[in-house]
């Protein structure tokens, strides 16, 4: 009977055992899967498995069971491998059947006989996985702390260090807790989003480069969607039901780690022996991408994986389990959050209200081309040339599991690759900033915009952003054709005046009553003018207790997952209302307005934990919308030149 | 003489009792002799005659590499790579023709025959026909008997007739004569020694032979070659062709999506479709190595066997060891090219990235395809294990897979023939056809389909109906023989209206629905982006023509948003496309005319951001009338502003937000069904006008003309008649009817009238006035302008003989005199009219009489 450590430390042994016992009956595969599933059912047991996110690869035992919280960036071609093969011991001439599953290399030491009748060729699929893009530092930290499975080496290894992202460095001053022991790391001061230059990051990366996993010293491009990301990339070999996974899914994979140095040998060997005509199937670039050194990109043979609904460590994987308990004090948490955000938004309660709605919005369905439930928010009136947007982003980053701030400077727009593009030479999908996991927040900082000319890349990038905002889709560039990938990204635009984005999108709204393509535009009306913004925000943050912060985090992730319906009766009322409003002034409300009103009502109900729409909520939604539009109109009167 | 290359090599590795024989004569070896050569070897294989088993005893196996052959797949027939002498050579009675090796079938086949009767019971399905007394020789590892196989294939060639063939490869052949015999004649005439065989034909003729071809292509195809050549040289003994005829099967019914390839397909004949994404440079692959002894200059040739050359260790002449040196320029090489094929976008499940496969093309197939081509490739699927390091015994347990291409077929080649490609590309299962037919039989199919179109967009029934008809299109007519050229079958639609009335959404929907849709925005596209541009290919440094949206959507729909924001030069391109359906290009030395049989679905916003109901369509969107008249239907998408509508709209929107997916499914036909329906109708239904329909159309047209003539204006032009015909045809297509009947005409009339009512109503008179669209100004407006000019003239004349007048004064006078309000614009127009008559001139603020 294998002990606990056996199945973690030597899972291959277990696979072999089961294989040997089964006498070649084909059901051994399911038996293996069941075995590990059974073992991992227990939450406790699952946490003993070391995580590739937290522990650098070289601290992990080869061929042990590890887990990896990751994002499917690309899918490679399926490969055929020796499922079952026979080895012959040259001395005794005895033949042994062996399984090639969950292995990269058929290690045998003897002769392998491929011509045996018993040999079986099987198929497996390779996914290229990277850590979840834009994952907030608090998420990483929280996951790693909840995972007791530290492979503790004798060296001076700090468990949290390697996976700390650059943002975290920046964040330290604003992060009151947990930062003391990290302060040793160098503090980044510049804005990474402005450059996206990996070289500079390399030089400024934490000196603790002892970990190979961060891989910064290597020229190998690990193809992370966002600039400045770190962490191990991984080739995940999938054996079962790979059709169920999609690009951009986030997964937790349990699998056998394979870092056999032999895997890296090939790539070096190739250069010398290009004689074999078979070698020209893959170009050098392709080799580098598809067979990178195992020390940099470990292979993970998947035993068990589940798609993550969210990557919030504070919630159980199935979010609905937690909802019943938490929903009781949802209202009070909402109140607190509203207060907090109001302070952050310089005393603007209306903007704070809309920000909450935005943060819990998600595309919950699509009707032909129309995504339902998206709620893009445009916060205008942010002061130009100040660090306010940056501060705001930090606050948001602290609240939600994954986010990214894209400074819309001319340089960024003209140089960044937003849309993923297929690189046919290397045969891979070059990632772009818009390749993000569902429910990631994209913070577009328009205050960084300056005068100048957009080149063709810039125009394409802006169009891509426009498409994202209007249709929640990104057209990946496959050179000969484009492919549409639906996405679910919450876009928050901070701008000085009204955002320019909708004006460049295919649909051009230019009348006052047609809504902008971003679903909602709120003009920020600061009630306070603190002399030192940075200090002001950090004071607010410090005064926030960690337990309350955690409640906010749970609140925002949880409410997203709730179901929602409208009763027959309320439907009727809404219809009447609409007709009534149109009667008075047909110009006052259009179909688009009703669309938005319905989304606001939906989010408003959810934000207090209600799963059905009530009349009160409907009235409240209408009230909010009126307040908001009045403010926009007012603004227009004040300075007539705003579009 | 048989080719010198073939003779020595065949006997190169003989086994045991097998004497080196001039095998080239062996194709017709009597069975007895063949048996003799095999008897000795087959005896030791008796326990498992159909599988190449662990032939540990065979030295031939040992001396090849550890992994000489791909592993067995779970079920596939056993492989046969073991080095044996073969009866399959290309030697034929007429051996003056060069035999060309077929690297596409793997290294030269050295299959061995096994006598099936020497084993007892466990032989697989034995070949059906008896060969000779009690003997069945099959190629080792298969159930293929060379003689039988050859015979069957010859019978197939001689007898196969396919009267119902629509295959474009058979263009110009007599369908009632044996098809492939005609093709052989063609080869004799043309001299291109390649015989393409449609596997579908083979299957319908002889299913067993077909099965063998699919399962053992590398054995069966050489047999076919042999059979064809015998037949050919029997019939045309004097024919001179470059090399022997090669059989290239295509369209193996095992046609697969790249995603479905699995280990079972290894070494089988498959056809997959995809898009070429990369082609390598030409790779010379050694077929035969030439060695010369450095001591005695004795030379020998060694054939390459699976990428390896067995260097002779000892010179056979002088017995010196290690004296043989490879002479490169006397070795024989064949061309090879690596092609990367990517799954076509249609085959891909949503949310996944496309797969790629490596394809090797050999000899004359090299450079047949270019990156970007959509092709169907027929070939043999191969898997080769990756060796890590010759010094290490460990092996990377992964196979490299590739396809050895035998036949390429470009899927869009047919476009050159002007055929409707969807007919061939989109194959419908019988069941699907039945459901489609059932749906078509329903009386309300038209309404059903139109409501299934963009269900999230509310109402606008007529617009949806118009778009539906656009999806189906009219019947393509060709009058090029009589010099009139083709008639446009595509229906163009323009939507205009207030912003935010989901025009863009409709466009997006249509773009997603049709297989060849393109979506552009008027603002974002230049004339070049719409048509085509010439650019220098960075790799080849040649000028290449890059096609734009209009050409790309040939046979599809080009959705153009923000039509009004388009620059004039861009718009002018559309003139040709929208009527002639072609695009002429003359730039950078490339002069050509491309087909652009595309329907245009455009959306335009009014100039003043809000639709001004007091103005005409032209005034509202300010598009040139020449362009507007090319649209069959122009719809206004306006806010109707009435209570009942509001209520329904609200209900629709609210339900959108809470109905579950299942409920929605019930309500509407799903998009896939609609897609299939349209595709089926477009490819199979070609309605013709019936007698009554023609009469109805004539009547409708005459009526339309009459309406206007009463008021002294033209209310219909032949273009409108053409539109009506197209619409009626499209409506017949919706019903899956081959005949255009009166009901179709009625609906076409209704829809056309509705659209006209919306777009061509003169806001001043309330009449529908087609001249708004055709000349840009309503007849009444023109009349009024004239009247005003005359009034002004009278006014001036009444003033008597004053040579000059004050501009403002005149304006005021005219206003005082007139009973209708006269704007400054109108006044200026009137002045202009009089200036044109040379009656007066306007200089600054004074008006001078002439």
Describe the structure.
The complex is a heterodimer of chains A (643) and B (850). With 643 residues, chain A is α/β, with parallel strands linked by helices. Chain A contains 22 helices and 20 strands. In chain A, helix 11 packs across helix 19 (546-560), helix 12 crosses helix 19 and helix 14 (388-399) runs parallel beside helix 18 (533-542). Chain B is α/β, with parallel strands linked by helices. Strand 4 of chain A pairs antiparallel with strand 12 (395-410) of chain B.
SSE order and pairing:
The complex is a heterodimer of chains A (643) and B (850).
Chain A: H1 4-9, H2 11-22, H3 28-41, H4 43-48, E1 65-75, E2 79-88, E3 95-99, E4 105-106, E5 111-113, E6 120-131, H5 137-146, H6 166-171, H7 192-195, H8 198-204, E7 234-238, E8 250-258, H9 262-272, H10 284-290, E9 299-307, H11 319-326, H12 330-344, H13 349-359, E10 365-367, E11 370-372, E12 377-380, H14 388-399, E13 403-407, H15 410-415, E14 421-423, E15 428-430, E16 440-445, H16 456-471, E17 473-477, E18 482-486, E19 489-494, H17 501-504, E20 520-523, H18 533-542, H19 546-560, H20 568-584, H21 591-607, H22 615-638
Parallel strand pairs in A: 7-9, 12-19, 12-20, 13-16, 16-19
Antiparallel strand pairs in A: 1-6, 1-8, 2-3, 2-5, 2-6, 6-7, 8-9, 10-11, 14-15, 17-18
Helix pairs in contact in A: 2-3, 11-19, 12-13, 12-19, 14-18, 21-22
Chain B: H1 6-10, H2 31-42, H3 59-63, E1 113-115, E2 137-139, H4 146-159, H5 179-190, E3 194-198, H6 199-205, H7 207-215, H8 217-235, E4 246-250, E5 255-256, E6 269-293, E7 299-303, E8 324-326, E9 332-342, E10 356-362, E11 374-387, E12 395-410, H9 422-425, H10 430-441, H11 445-452, H12 461-472, E13 477-479, E14 485-487, E15 493-497, H13 503-513, E16 517-521, H14 527-530, E17 532-536, E18 543-547, H15 549-552, E19 557-561, H16 568-580, E20 582-587, E21 590-595, E22 599-604, H17 617-621, H18 625-628, E23 633-637, H19 643-658, H20 661-667, H21 671-684, E24 688-689, H22 691-709, H23 718-734, E25 739-740, H24 742-759, H25 771-774, H26 779-798, E26 804-806, H27 807-817, H28 824-836, E27 840-843, E28 846-849
Parallel strand pairs in B: 3-4, 5-6, 10-12, 15-22, 15-23, 16-19, 19-22, 24-25
Antiparallel strand pairs in B: 1-2, 6-7, 6-8, 6-9, 6-11, 9-10, 11-12, 13-14, 17-18, 20-21, 26-28, 27-28
């Amino acid at each position: 009977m294998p002990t606990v450590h056996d199945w973690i430390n030597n899972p291959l042994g277990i696979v072999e055992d089961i294989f040997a016992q089964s006498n070649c009956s084909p059901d051994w595969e399911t038996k293996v899967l069941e075995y590990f599933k059974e073992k991992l059912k227990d939450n406790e047991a699952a946490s003993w498995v070391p995580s590739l996110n937290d522990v650098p690869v070289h601290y992990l035992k080869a061929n042990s069971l590890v887990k990896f919280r990751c994002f499917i960036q690309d899918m490679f071609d399926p490969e055929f491998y020796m499922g079952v093969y026979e080895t012959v011991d040259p001395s005794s001439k005895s033949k042994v059947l062996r399984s090639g599953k969950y292995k990269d290399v058929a290690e045998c030491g003897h002769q392998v006989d491929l011509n045996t009748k018993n040999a079986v060729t099987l198929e497996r699929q390779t996914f290229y996985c990277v850590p979840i893009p834009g994952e907030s530092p608090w998420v990483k930290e929280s996951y790693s702390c909840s995972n007791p499975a530290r492979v503790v080496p004798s060296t001076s290894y700090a468990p949290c260090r390697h996976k700390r992202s650059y943002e975290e460095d920046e964040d330290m001053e604003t992060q009151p807790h947990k930062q003391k022991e990290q302060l040793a790391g160098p503090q980044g001061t510049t804005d990474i989003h402005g450059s996206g230059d990996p070289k500079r990051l390399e030089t400024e990366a934490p000196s603790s480069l002892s970990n190979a996993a961060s891989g910064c010293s290597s020229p190998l491009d690990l193809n992370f969607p966002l600039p400045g990301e770190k962490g191990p990339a991984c080739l995940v070999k999938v054996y079962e039901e790979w059709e169920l996974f999609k690009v951009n899914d986030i997964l937790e994979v349990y699998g056998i780690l394979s870092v056999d140095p032999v895997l890296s040998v090939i790539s070096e060997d190739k250069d010398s022996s290009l004689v074999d005509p078979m070698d020209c199937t893959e170009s050098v670039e392709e080799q580098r991408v598809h067979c990178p050194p195992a020390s940099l990109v470990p292979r993970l043979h998947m035993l068990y994986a589940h798609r993550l609904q969210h990557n919030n460590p504070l919630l159980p994987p199935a979010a609905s389990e937690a909802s019943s308990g938490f929903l009781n004090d949802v209202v009070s948490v909402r109140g607190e959050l509203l207060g907090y955000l109001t302070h952050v938004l310089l005393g603007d309660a209306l903007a704070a209200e809309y920000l909450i709605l935005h943060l819990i919005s998600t595309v919950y369905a699509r009707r032909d081309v129309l995504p339902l439930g998206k709620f893009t928010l445009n916060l205008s009136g942010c002061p130009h040339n100040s660090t306010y947007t940056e501060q705001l982003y930090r606050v948001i980053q602290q609240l939600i599991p994954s986010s990214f701030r894209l400074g819309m400077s001319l340089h960024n727009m003209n140089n960044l690759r937003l849309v993923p593009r297929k690189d046919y030479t290397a045969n891979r999908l070059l990632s772009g900033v818009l390749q993000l996991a569902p429910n990631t927040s994209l913070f577009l900082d328009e205050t960084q915009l300056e005068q100048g000319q957009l080149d063709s890349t810039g125009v394409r990038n802006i169009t891509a952003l426009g498409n994202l905002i209007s249709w929640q889709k990104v057209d990946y560039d496959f050179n000969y054709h484009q492919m549409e990938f639906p996405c679910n990204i919450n876009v928050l635009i901070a701008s000085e005046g009204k955002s320019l984005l909708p004006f460049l999108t295919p649909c051009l709204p230019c009348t006052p009553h047609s809504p902008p393509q971003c679903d909602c535009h709120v003009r920020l009306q600061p009630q306070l003018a603190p002399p030192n913004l940075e200090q002001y925000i950090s004071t607010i943050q410090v005064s926030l207790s960690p337990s309350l912060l955690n409640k906010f985090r749970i609140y925002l992730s949880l409410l997203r997952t709730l179901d929602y319906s409208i009763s027959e009766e309320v439907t009727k009322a809404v219809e009447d209302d609409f007709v009534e409003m149109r009667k008075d002034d047909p110009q006052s409300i259009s179909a688009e307005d009703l669309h938005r009103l319905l989304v606001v009502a939906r989010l408003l109900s959810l934000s207090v934990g209600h799963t059905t729409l009530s009349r009160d909520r409907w009235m409240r939604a209408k009230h909010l919308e009126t307040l908001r539009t009045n403010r926009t109109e007012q603004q227009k009167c004040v300075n007539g030149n705003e579009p | 003489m048989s080719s010198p290359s073939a003779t020595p090599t065949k006997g190169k590795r003989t086994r045991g009792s097998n004497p080196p024989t001039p095998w080239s004569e062996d194709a017709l070896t009597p069975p007895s002799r063949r048996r003799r050569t095999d008897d000795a070897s087959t005896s030791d294989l008796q326990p498992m005659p159909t599988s190449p088993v662990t032939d540990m005893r065979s030295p031939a196996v040992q001396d090849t590499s550890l992994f000489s052959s791909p592993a067995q797949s779970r079920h596939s027939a056993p492989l046969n790579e073991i080095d044996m002498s073969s009866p399959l050579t290309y030697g034929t009675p007429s051996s003056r023709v060069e035999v060309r090796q077929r690297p596409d079938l793997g290294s030269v086949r050295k299959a061995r025959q096994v006598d099936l009767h020497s084993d007892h019971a466990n032989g697989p399905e034995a070949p059906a026909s008896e060969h000779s007394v009690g003997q069945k020789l099959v190629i080792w590892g298969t159930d293929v008997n060379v003689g039988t196989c050859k015979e069957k294939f010859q019978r197939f060639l001689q007898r196969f007739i396919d009267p119902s063939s629509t295959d474009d490869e058979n263009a110009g052949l007599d369908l009632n004569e044996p098809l492939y015999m005609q093709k052989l004649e063609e080869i004799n005439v043309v001299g291109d020694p390649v015989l393409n065989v449609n596997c579908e034909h083979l299957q319908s003729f002889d299913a067993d032979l077909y099965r063998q071809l699919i399962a053992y292509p590398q054995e069966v195809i050489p047999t076919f070659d042999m059979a064809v050549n015998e037949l050919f040289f029997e019939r045309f003994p004097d024919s001179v062709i470059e090399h022997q005829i090669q059989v290239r099967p295509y369209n193996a019914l095992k046609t697969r999506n790249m995603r479905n390839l699995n280990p079972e397909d290894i070494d089988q004949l498959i056809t997959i479709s995809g898009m070429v994404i990369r082609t390598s440079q030409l790779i010379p692959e050694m077929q035969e190595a030439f060695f010369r002894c450095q001591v005695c200059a004795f030379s020998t040739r060694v054939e390459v066997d699976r990428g390896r050359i067995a260097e002779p260790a000892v010179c056979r002449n002088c017995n010196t060891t290690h004296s043989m040196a490879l002479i490169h320029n006397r070795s024989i090489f064949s061309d090879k090219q690596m092609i990367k094929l990517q799954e076509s976008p249609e085959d891909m499940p949503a949310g996944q990235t496309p797969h790629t496969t490596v394809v090797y093309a050999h000899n004359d197939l090299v450079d047949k395809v270019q990156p970007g081509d959509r092709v169907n490739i027929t070939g043999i699927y191969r898997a080769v294990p990756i060796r890590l390091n010759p010094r290490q015994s460990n092996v990377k347990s992964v196979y490299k897979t590739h396809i050895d291409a035998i036949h390429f077929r470009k899927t869009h080649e047919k476009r050159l023939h002007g055929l409707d490609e969807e007919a061939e590309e989109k194959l419908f299962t019988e069941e699907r056809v039945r459901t489609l037919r059932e749906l078509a039989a329903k009386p309300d199919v038209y309404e059903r389909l139109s409501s299934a179109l963009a269900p999230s967009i509310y109402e606008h029934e007529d617009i949806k109906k118009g778009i539906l008809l656009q999806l189906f299109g009219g019947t393509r007519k060709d009058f090029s023989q009589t010099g009139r050229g083709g008639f446009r079958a595509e229906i163009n639609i323009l939507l205009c209206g207030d912003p935010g009335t989901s025009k863009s959404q409709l466009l997006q929907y249509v773009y997603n629905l049709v297989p060849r849709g393109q979506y552009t925005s008027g603002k974002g596209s230049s004339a070049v982006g719409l048509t085509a541009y010439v650019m220098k290919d960075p790799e080849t440094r040649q000028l290449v023509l890059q096609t734009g949206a209009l050409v790309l959507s040939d046979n599809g729909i080009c959705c153009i948003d923000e039509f009004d924001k388009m620059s004039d030069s861009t718009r002018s391109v559309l003139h040709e496309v929208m009527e002639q359906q072609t695009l002429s290009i003359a730039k950078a030395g490339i002069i050509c005319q491309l087909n652009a049989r595309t329907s245009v679905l455009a959306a335009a916003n009014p100039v003043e951001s809000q639709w001004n109901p007091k103005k005409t369509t032209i005034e509202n969107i300010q598009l040139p009338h020449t362009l507007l008249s090319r649209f069959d239907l122009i719809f206004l998408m306006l806010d109707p502003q009435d209570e009942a509508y509001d209520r329904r709209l609200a209900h629709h929107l609210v339900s959108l937000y809470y109905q579950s997916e299942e409920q929605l499914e019930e309500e509407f036909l799903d998009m896939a069904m609609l897609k299939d329906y349209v595709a089926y109708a477009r490819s199979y239904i070609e309605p013709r006008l019936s007698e009554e329909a023609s009469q109805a159309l004539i009547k409708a047209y005459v009526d339309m003309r009459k309406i206007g003539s009463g008021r002294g204006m033209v209310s219909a032009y032949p273009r409108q008649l053409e539109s009506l015909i197209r619409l009626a045809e499209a409506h017949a297509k919706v019903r899956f009817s081959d005949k255009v009947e009166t009901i179709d005409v009625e609906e076409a009339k209704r829809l056309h009238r509705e659209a006209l009512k919306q777009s061509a109503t003169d806001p001043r008179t309330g009449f529908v006035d087609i001249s708004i669209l055709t000349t840009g100004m309503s007849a009444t407006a023109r009349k009024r302008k004239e009247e005003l000019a005359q009034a002004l003239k009278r006014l001036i004349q009444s003033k008597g003989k004053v040579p000059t007048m004050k501009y403002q004064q005149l304006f005021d006078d005219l206003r005082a005199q007139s009973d209708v309000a006269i704007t400054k614009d109108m006044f200026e127009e009137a002045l202009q009219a009089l200036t044109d008559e040379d009656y007066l001139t306007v200089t600054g603020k004074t008006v001078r009489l002439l």
